[in-house]
Amino acid sequence: HSINFDRPDDVDIYVAIDYVPLSNFPVGGEDEIKQAIVDYFDTNQEIGEDLIHSTIYCPANIDGVSIRALTSGTTASPTGTSDIAMSYNQIATFDVSRITTTDVS
């Protein structure tokens, strides 16, 4: 029997987060936010599953942070807050190098 498969096409996701650090914001908190987002979607995002914008808030909400704005998109300097549709053979992929965090306090 022949078995065929395709590897999914990666769709690079960019994220920009404006935040205010609270009194218990951890040392290295920006890196923690970025890694939490990558880890979450590495585990939970499925091939062909649309990226629901609001789900990015879940892993980004580490202790000690107040998120003021969060945008995402498929190009650098994202400005969107809409969900991002994936086709059946695509998967949203995240990398810490494509996530920017800005202290706006």
- Low-confidence stretches are none
The number of distinct helices, counting runs of at least 4 residues, comes to 2
How much helix is in the residues?
10-25%
Question: What class would the helix/strand composition place it in?
Answer: alpha/beta
| Ends apart, CA distance between termini | 61 Å
The average pLDDT value, as a whole number, equals 96
Encode the helix/strand succession as letters.
Answer: EEHHEEE
In brief, what are we looking at here?
It contains 2 helices and 5 strands; from the N terminus they run ββααβββ. With 105 residues, the chain is of the alpha/beta class.
Walk me through the structure.
It is a single chain. The longest helix has 16 residues. This protein has a three-stranded mixed sheet with strand order 3-2-5, with helices on one face. A two-stranded parallel sheet has the order 1-4. It is 19% helix and 29% strand. It is α/β, with parallel strands linked by helices.
Keyword list:
alpha/beta, 19% helix, 5 strands, 105 residues, 3-stranded mixed sheet
What is the topological layout?
Layout: E1 9-12, E2 14-21, H1 29-44, H2 57-60, E3 65-73, E4 90-93, E5 99-103
Parallel strand pairs: 1-4, 2-5
Antiparallel strand pairs: 2-3
